[in-house]
Amino acid sequence: MSTEATPLRLGILLSGRGSNFLAIAQSIRERRLAGVEIAIVLSNVAEAAGITAAVQLGVPCAVLVSKGRPRTEHDADMIATLRAHKVDLVCLAGYMRLLSPGFIAAFSNRILNIHPSLLPAFPGLDAQQQTFEYGVKIAGCTVHFVDEHLDHGAIILQRTVPVLDSDDAHSLAERILAEEHIAYTEAIARVASGEYEIQGRRYLKR
Ligand code: GAR
Q1: Does the Cβ of 94 fall within 6 Å of ligand 1?
Q2: Fold that domain 116-142+157-206 belongs to in CATH
Q3: Ligand 1 pocket, mutate which of 90, 172, 180, 181 (most atoms under 8 A from CB)
């Protein structure tokens, strides 16, 4: 899917802190993610710390505020911006807005998401809090392709963490986040290699 000469161009979408974006950027910088570059970081929230970080790193970035705008109209602007930056693969990294069917069709099988639970458990908002309150003993994160349903598409990989008796929701979320930062780089590398197939819901390495 990518070669040394033509790197795979990522469009990273975020709404807040941006730690997953920073982990991806660091992996690229440290050459742990070969044949990949960040084409643009896009936020739907003007105050997102992830955008401040992108500016500081000199990574191309833009804000397209979504608040008060119809989803399809906002997504059309997002699609146009991603296309203008020749994005091959869209990576949702804490992008807290549902994508329209038009967006998903525009980047069919080329959108990844990271979610802080072992899907299909605890989709939606506050997954770590949901995980903690439910009382499960194993928590974790999931990187998956995005389809038209929330936190739903074919799973590329999952990483687990034990839930400790001493945990609160915050300490659990921190340990899950550390695994997210490893998982996203690994998932992007797998997709960039092109050495996989999807059978139904199953992502399989070739
Ligand atoms: C991460 O924990 C990510 O898994 C979660 O938002 C956080 C963003 O953190 N995403 C979702 O819950 C999506 N359903 P970050 O801005 O520091 O990367």
Answers
A1: yes
A2: Rossmann fold (3.40.50)
A3: 180
Q: Amino acid identity of 31?
A: R
Mean pLDDT, 10 residues at a time, the chain of 206 residues: 76 98 98 96 98 98 98 98 98 97 97 98 98 98 96 97 98 98 98 96 95
Measured in Å, residue 94 CA sits from the centre of ligand 1 at: 4
Tell me the sheet residues that pair with 9.
37
Structure-token match 């929230």, residue found:
45
Place of tokens 């069917």: 101
Whether 116-142+157-206 and 1-108 are alike in CATH topology: the answer is yes
Q: How far apart are CA 13 and CA 142, in angstroms?
A: 17
170 is a catalytic site residue: no
The domain limits of the chain are 1-108, 116-142+157-206
Query: Which structure tokens are listed for 142?
Result: 């999931």
Bridge partners of residue 38, in order along the sequence: 10
Question: pTM of the full predicted structure?
Answer: 0.96
- Cβ(188) – ligand 1 distance below 6 Å: no
Within 8 A by CB and 6+ apart from 201, the residues are: 153, 154, 155
- Tell the residue nearest (CA) to atom 1 of ligand 1: 94
Q: Which CATH superfamily is domain 1-108 in?
A: Formyl transferase, N-terminal domain (3.40.50.170)
